[in-house]
Amino acid sequence: MSSSTFFGQPRALANLFGVELWERFSFYGMQGILLIYLYYSAADGGLGIDQDTATSIVGAYGGAVYLSTILGAWVADRLLGSERVLFLSAVLVMLGHIALAVLPGLAGVGVGLVLIAVGSGGVKANATSLVGNLYDEHDERRDAGFSLFYLGINLGALAGPLLTGLLQTNAGFHYGFGLAAVGMAVGLVQYTLGRKRMPEAGREVPNPLPARGRPIAALVFAAAAAIVVLAAVTGLLSADRLSNVVVALSVIAAVAYFVIILSSRRITAVERLRVVAFIPMFLASAAFWSLYQQQFTVVTIYSDERLDRSIGGWEMPVSWVQSINPVFIIVLSGVFAALWTRLGDRQPSSPIKFALGTTIMGVAFLLFLPLAGGGPNSTPLLALTGILLVFTVAELLLSPVGLSLSTKLAPHAFHTQMVALFFLSVALGTALSGTLAQFYSADDEVVYFGVLGAVAIVLGLALGAAARPISRLMGGVR
Description:
Elements: E1 4-6, E2 9-10, H1 13-39, H2 51-67, H3 69-80, H4 82-102, H5 105-132, H6 142-170, H7 173-193, H8 214-234, H9 242-263, H10 269-292, H11 298-305, E3 310-311, E4 314-315, H12 324-343, H13 350-366, H14 381-409, H15 415-437, H16 445-465, H17 467-473
Antiparallel strand pairs: 1-2, 3-4
Helix pairs in contact: 1-2, 1-4, 1-5, 1-6, 1-7, 2-5, 2-9, 2-15, 3-4, 3-5, 3-15, 4-5, 4-7, 5-15, 6-7, 6-12, 6-14, 9-15, 10-13, 10-14, 10-15, 10-16, 10-17, 12-14, 13-14, 13-16, 13-17, 14-15
């Protein structure tokens, strides 16, 4: 076992903590100003896109980030290993932010978001897999280690929107995008200096692709890229339908992945049952993220149009609202890590944690109901802050636990790709957040928040009722 020198965790966790912090700084810093960049008028420095189309783009982009974890995981498991893919993906992320900063108009948006989506997907799946490699299957430090890793994510998520929002307000959108590029460059330097400390398992290719299969794989990727380009050029892939397309792709990819893994001869009977146990958690996760990720669609519009952002005569940038959630996570992630460590094998099972997270997320949406029907500046900042606190509690019950669970339930031959399956649930939910946002309007808030909140609560209660049989399928994994 690795020596414990980073808050009681393996030393290599510090380097992964750092690269993820800076990648999230750049990711959330850019995303904090992306939606308003799309729908603000040219006079305000934006592109003047219709608001529904803008939310579709943001939802599709967010979903594509998580959808591309499949590509990053596949390349890691079949070609290069997790460590190399993590490094190369971080380079792509930096190049994407540079494109957003220097290329004007929709060209910069298109090139930048594609590069960032592919790169961030590779970073996400492989950083998580490398963290999982630091622990054996029954190491009780695992959930606490993932909670600390999650703290690094949210330190970056806190600082990114604050600084890019300030630059966007005072200098313009492209300066904010440029700062995101600088942040990723810092992360790359930091990671490069510590690469030698990464576990040797991260450099292994667990399921190498035979040499004869490589030309076929290259042709498949080239054909897929050609189809996407053709669809975009001919108008079939219109911006207002992008989130729906990513929803469909996420469903298809998830079904295909479950079928491939469950039918593989490379997994044991116990591993197969564990994958089956993951299916209801996948569905609950998708429902959770379809609400949670509306921070970047509906909650952003709500903050721009409904929230009273005046503080002593100064108006807070819209993007700063997206730093509220990371503040709570930074405060509470240590509490949750300590709680799981203290409880040890007495802590709630993963299905129960998932059920609680989904239910509480539904409650958070119901909390918007007393504020419904107000006009501009009608929602106090303190009220939205309280709602985002509930978002945070729900997130900490599900997201780091989901990351950890995917590594614990993963068959050996599909280690990184099982992590990608968890991120596929996030892809589906995130793309749905863009699709659902098109039904939001100030006039229909009671129906919008009420229905979505109630559905999430029902799903959470159903998962809680099924927790024991799911746990039996998990074969000793909690």
